Amino acid sequence: MPEKAPSTARLEAFSDGVIAVIITIMVLELKVPHENGIAGLRAILPILVIYVLSFSFTAIYWINHQHLIERIEAADARILYANLGFLFCLSLLPFFTAYVIEKQLDSFAVALYAIWMNITGFSFLLLRIAIHRHLRGVGRLAREDRAERGKHLASLALYLMAIPLAYVHAAIALALIAVVTMIWVLPMLAIRPKQ
Questions:
Q1: Predicted confidence (pLDDT) per residue in 9-32, tens digit
Q2: Where are the alpha helices (DSSP H) in the chain?
Q3: Burial of residue 2 (number of CB atoms within 10 Å: 0-12, 13-18, 19+)
Q4: What is the torsional sign of CA 149, 84, 73, 1?
Q5: Buried b (16+ CB within 10 A) or exposed e, 53-66
Q6: Which of 154, 178, 193 lies closest to 52 in space, CA to CA?
Q7: Which of the residues 69, 89, 103, 165 could staple to 173 if both were Cys, CB 3.0 to 4.6 A apart?
Q8: Looking at residue 71, what DSSP letter applies?
Q9: Nearest to 127 by CA among 183, 88, 179, 184
């Protein structure tokens, strides 16, 4: 008798828990400024920008993760391992966020941040490929899936561009990372829940 593939419910619950912890760890990096008034707010503005960027990055992956997982009824070993690889990469984002904040947005720190965005994006691409392989096997791979993969590859290319750009101007590299985030946020309204 063939072994039944595990349901996606446990995979979703575990992933949601890990992502919730990641967001909680990131918010702990936010500290109240020593200065009062506008001067204090201005002092922590770069920290808030990096936090919003990292939070948005994590939130987009959570939404895309939900959208991908809801399309399958069972998770094979490839999907489980690809999911663990993705969660491992994403779990290090609070460290790289804190590193950029601690190093006050210097070029090396921003380049490292962009590298980690790329590594995490690549790990999610591997998860996407594993799920697409499963969907192809059951005859449910849609044309939109190929378009999403193309958008994903374009995002990785932009993250790669941000790495050398960090040495030219760190703020522009961060702006490019933010553009990638917006590429994924705007079409999110088009993702319809499963009926």
A1: 889 999 999 999 999 998 887 788
A2: 8-27, 37-69, 77-91, 93-102, 107-137, 143-168, 170-185
A3: exposed
A4: positive
A5: bbbbbbbbbbebbb
A6: 178
A7: 165
A8: T
A9: 88
* DSSP structure class, residue 34: S
Phi, psi of 74 (to 5 degrees): -140, 155
pLDDT digits (tens, 9 = 90+) for 70-125: 888 888 899 999 999 999 999 999 999 999 999 988 999 999 999 999 999 999 99
CB atoms within 10 A of CB 175: 13
Cβ 183 vs Cβ 151: under 8 Å: yes
Q: Which residues contact 9 (CB under 8 A, 6 or more apart)?
A: none
**Size (the chain), residues:** 195
User: What count of Cα atoms within 13 Å lies in the side-chain half-sphere of residue 34?
Assistant: 0
Structure tokens at 30: 């936010």
Q: For the purposes of burial, counting CB atoms within 10 Å of the CB of 5, is it exposed (0-12), middle (13-18) or buried (19 or more)?
A: middle
Quote the crossing angle between the two packed helices 143-168 and 107-137, to the nearest 10°. 170
